[in-house]
Amino acid sequence: MGLSFIHDAGLIHRDIKPENLLVDHRGDIRISDFGCAYLHTSYPLKYDETYSSEVNGTWHYMAPELLANDKLPRQARKEYGLGVDYWSLGCVFFELVAEETGVRLGVCMMCYEN
User: Fold this and answer.
1) What does the alpha-carbon distance between residue 90 and residue 23 come to, in Å, rounded to a whole number?
2) pLDDT of residue 103
3) pTM (predicted TM-score)
4) Which of 8, 22, 52, 84 gets the most CB atoms within 10 Å of its CB?
5) Positive/negative CA dihedral, 14, 54, 40, 108
6) Apex CA 93: angle with CA 71 and CA 102, to 5°?
7) pLDDT band at residue 98 using 50, 70 and 90 as cut-offs
8) Peptide bond into 44 cis (omega under 30)
9) Domain locations in the chain?
10) What stretches of 1-109 adopt beta strand conformation (E)?
11) Do 57 and 36 touch, CB atoms closer than 8 A?
């Protein structure tokens, strides 16, 4: 629900990682650190649209489209949408289930490539 809320407000977080997911006294998760966020002028954002081509976030949790853009000149970069936040959240969930953080990127990338 948290990601849906910020997407409905016109934001793509771009840096979802364990350090930015806080748990309050009731056990509710709060999303923090919007320093890398993309703010769109109109909202809500739509899942099937693209909004930005900038590369921001923490490398281990970046979606493949962000990693690919990092190697391209600015004018050749492809735009991405809300999926980058869900990819990062998937990497966080993987870490929770696997109880290991050292293999996170390699396994996430293998899942993407297959």
Assistant:
1) 18
2) 52
3) 0.85
4) 84
5) negative
6) 60
7) confident
8) yes
9) 2-113
10) 11-12, 21-23, 29-31, 38-39
11) yes
Q: Which is the catalytic residue, given 15, 24, 70, 85?
A: 15
Does pLDDT of 109 surpass 60? no
Residue pointed to by tokens 């293998």: 110
CA pair distance 76, 17, nearest whole angstrom: 27
CB 108, CB 88: distance < 8 Å: no
- 26-44 pLDDT, tens digit per residue, is 999 999 999 999 999 999 9
Distance CA 9, CA 76 (A): 28
**What top-level class would CATH report for the domain 2-113?**
mainly alpha
Active site residue 15: yes
Which tens digit of pLDDT belongs to each residue from 44-83? 999 999 999 999 999 889 999 999 998 899 999 999 999 9
pLDDT classification of 100: cutoffs 50, 70, 90: low
